[in-house]
Write a structure and sequence with these properties.
There is one protein chain. It is built from 16 helices and 15 strands. With 438 residues, it is an alpha/beta fold. It folds into two domains: 183 residues, Glycerate kinase, MOFRL-like N-terminal domain (Rossmann fold); 164 residues, MOFRL domain (glycerate kinase, domain 1). The termini are close together.
Length: 438
């Protein structure tokens, strides 16, 4: 059996389950001149104008489905997506911009979105479409700072080993749109946000840096996070000054729970990593694999996660009471602190670590990939390995440990094979890790 190919089939089944079109088609319908969204019923006769805004890797396809439902009823709209993630829209403007590092397109699109948000009056409806990547794409910079400073801060955070919750706590306090501040701009209009989660536990205040949700974090916490990861001293002067002024009350805090700006704000979660894992499990069972979802909240450093995946796989392999072959499913988002000069991403690095750990354990195949189709600054979603990975590298005189040390997983798999290449999937619900045990 080609378990590498089977693992990829299972992964793609998970991705297909969280493609935005079907998620929104199930969530949003027009019936008897009412817009039904989840448990909400909005009479269209009571709505003057409908605006559509959004940010994230999936926001273009989300917008396309909203257009199918509302069509000419949309007065104006604008969404911002990662390069290569756009699609044709009729009523909504679309901007492609930089991710994970913001660029000028992102700044300009964010101002356009804020302008639309500011037009909303009490009898208007603003539909906001949010997905993974929104933090970098819906971007601005505080007074006395600059885009260049924000790029540096983002680089420091992304490479620090901080969790996405911590990264976004800092981002929210260097912005006038994140951390509930987009809801502040829309008020007194009605704000309906459809959210595709790319964060463990699906916290609305963290996904895309929570632009439409109350923010429980503070300026003081943002500064503590920078200090915790030893990057406070590297933060540029303008950004640091803004954070210090926020801590002392000179700058306004982000809106918290109970703030009037959230009185007419509704956040609906439409897709999650667990939904994708359920689809993976269904596919695995169709392929006659005994399947288990082990954990949908995997987090922590890639080395720790790799050891956990291998230990769990060996436990199932050695258990004579478990019917084989077995498919073990994990979801979440490991973190990686880059110390080498190579090219790769957390999933490829995780797969490479597993490849080393598996060299004396035949009969186990492991795939690690991002549901958005992109792992780090590469064209790969991730990689798949087994016990042959390290041995094949040695036979070709490729030093696998050198690639690990340099964090150069992309070039390792480019030379040896094993890449999972999907192209942009137009969705994002974190990562999926699949272990098939024979």
């Amino acid at each position: 059996m080609n378990y590498r190919a089977i693992a990829e089939q299972i992964f793609m089944a998970g991705v297909s389950r969280v493609i935005p079109e079907q998620l929104i088609a199930k969530m949003m319908v027009l019936k008897n001149d009412k817009l039904l969204v989840g448990n909400l019923s909005l009479p269209l006769k009571e709505i003057n104008k409908i605006y559509v805004i959004g940010a994230g890797k999936a926001s273009a396809l989300m917008a396309a489905e909203v257009e199918k439902t509302l069509g000419n009823r949309i007065s104006e709209g604008h969404v911002v997506v990662k390069y290569g993630h756009s699609c044709k829209l009729k009523h909504i403007m679309i901007t492609e911009a930089g991710h994970p590092i913001p660029d000028s397109n992102g700044y300009e699109a964010t101002q356009a979105i804020l302008k639309i948000a500011g037009k909303a009056e009490s009898n208007d409806l603003v539909i906001c479409l949010l997905s993974g990547g929104g933090s970098a794409l819906l971007t601005d910079f505080p007074e006395d700072s600059s885009p260049e400073e924000m790029i540096l801060v983002n680089n420091l955070l992304i490479n620090s080993g901080a969790s996405i919750n911590e990264i976004n706590a800092v981002r929210k306090h260097l912005s006038l749109v994140k951390g509930g501040q987009l809801a502040r701009a829309v008020y007194p209009g009605t704000l309906l946000s459809l959210v595709l989660s790319d964060v463990i536990g699906d916290p609305l205040d963290v996904i895309a840096s929570g632009p439409t949700a109350p923010d429980p974090t503070t300026f003081s916490q943002a500064l503590s996070i920078l200090e915790k990861y030893n990057i406070l001293q590297s933060v540029p002067e303008g950004a640091l000054k803004y954070l210090r002024e926020g801590e002392t009350g000179i700058r306004p805090e982000t809106p918290k729970k109970g703030d009037p700006v959230f009185e007419k704000s509704f956040n609906l979660l439409i897709g999650t990593n667990r939904l994708a894992l359920d689809a993976c499990m269904k596919k695995a069972e169709e392929l006659n694999l005994n399947s288990f979802i082990i954990d949908d909240k995997v987090q922590g450093g890639v080395a720790t996660i790799a050891e956990f995946i291998i230990e769990t796989s060996l436990k199932y392999k050695e258990d004579k009471n478990v019917l084989k072959p077995v498919c073990l499913l994990f979801g979440g988002e490991p973190t990686i602190k880059m110390t080498g000069k190579g090219v790769g991403g957390r999933n490829q690095h995780l797969a490479l670590l597993c490849g080393v750990l598996l060299q004396n354990h035949p009969g186990i195949t492991i795939l690690a990939a991002g549901t958005d189709g992109t792992d780090g600054p590469t064209d790969a979603a991730g990689a798949v390995v087994d016990s042959k990975t390290a041995h094949d590298a040695m036979s070709k005189k490729i030093d696998i440990n050198k690639y690990l040390k340099e964090f150069d997983s992309y070039n390792f798999f480019k030379k040896t094979g094993g890449h999972i290449i999907t192209g942009p999937t137009m969705t994002n619900v974190m990562d999926i890790i699949i272990s098939i045990v024979e």
